[in-house]
Design goal:
The chain is an alpha/beta fold. The protein has twelve helices and seven strands.
Length: 320
């Protein structure tokens, strides 16, 4: 009897959740969304989808070429501006431009999408500035942009969508990338709890591995060679040339095997976060995120450590 009651409640809960999750806002044609990192990848695809969806899209690009490519083939509802999220004056100029474009209506959506992955590699290969270069974009850029645009978001009682990563739930490599994404997760959680009184929703996107500029092999390998060549001879000898070669091969295998080319799995999550009446707090995008990375993040540390150790090469002078 109790079992049937529990099952009935579970089915009812799922049905209510699905119904609630399907509810969407109306009148998107007068709502403005600002997206960073639109030169390529998720940001590029998202802006085109948002414009087709009827939003007024304001796209922040790093380069003029990226802005021109995005503008090509789109209508008057999409406008671009050059912005560097690591430059406070550039972010301020973008905010003032958005304020003017919105005409006092406020900003419905801010999507903090700009990011970089390199340099990444074994922690001992890094120098302090190698961490800074990634943290400035992925974490401090998100904070800088959010704080600058928050008054406009408050005015519209809108949405903030921050792009983190599954590697913000489970650290799998050295360098600033995982650290920055853990930071985005923490910042987003604190922000959500601090500003929910103003009717603002904060959502976190946690993509798995996808084929974008962030996972492009050429810059990853270029940076690995730079890191390897800058090591002190003693440190380089402790790892050995075979370790370096195997590490490069492992990166090639991961990026060629596991990176999903279907970016819509991520952009659909972003669109749901912007259009749902009750957006989710977190969106895991990609099958590897849902069935591997996120579940593994809850596993005991010794299990995760053992799994990663089985995959990674062993240094020449490691303890056996």
């Amino acid at each position: 009897m109790w079992l049937y009651a529990v099952l009935a409640l579970a089915v009812l809960w799922v049905a209510v959740w699905l119904w609630r999750d399907s509810l969407v806002i109306d009148k998107v044609s007068n709502k403005y969304v600002f997206v960073t990192g639109c030169d390529s990848g998720f940001g590029y695809v998202l802006c085109k989808k948002l414009e087709r969806h009827g939003f007024q899209v304001l796209a922040g690009c790093l380069t003029q070429k990226g802005a021109d490519d995005l503008q090509r083939g789109t209508g008057p509802n999409l406008k671009t501006i050059l912005v560097d999220v690591t430059d406070a004056s550039s972010v301020k100029m973008a905010m003032q431009w958005v304020q003017k474009e919105t005409g006092g209506k406020g900003l419905w959506g801010l999507v903090n999408n700009a990011g970089r992955s390199v340099p990444m590699g074994p922690t001992e290969w890094m120098r302090t500035e190698d961490f800074h270069s990634t943290l400035r974009v992925n974490m401090m850029g998100v904070i800088e942009t959010t704080l600058a645009f928050l008054p406009l978001i408050k005015k519209a009682r809108g949405r903030i969508v921050n792009v983190a990563s599954v590697l913000g739930r489970l650290a799998a490599n050295g360098g600033g990338y995982c650290i920055s994404k853990f930071g985005v997760e923490s910042f987003s959680d604190c922000l959500r709890r601090d500003i929910h009184y103003f009717g603002i929703k904060v959502s976190i996107i946690e993509p798995g591995f996808f084929k974008t500029a962030v996972t492009s092999l050429e810059p990853i390998e270029k940076e690995l060679h730079r890191l390897w060549n800058q090591l002190d001879p003693e440190v380089r000898d402790s790892y050995g040339e075979k370790y370096f070669e195997k590490y490069i091969k492992l990166q090639r295998f991961i990026m060629n095997t596991f990176c999903d080319p279907d970016l819509s799995k991520v952009t659909n999550c972003m669109i749901h976060a912007l259009t749902a009446k009750y957006p989710r707090t977190r969106y895991s995008a990609g099958w590897d995120a849902k069935f591997a990375w996120i579940p593994f993040s809850y596993a005991p540390a010794f299990i995760v450590d053992s799994m990663l150790s089985a995959v990674l090469p062993r240094p020449a002078q490691s303890c056996s």
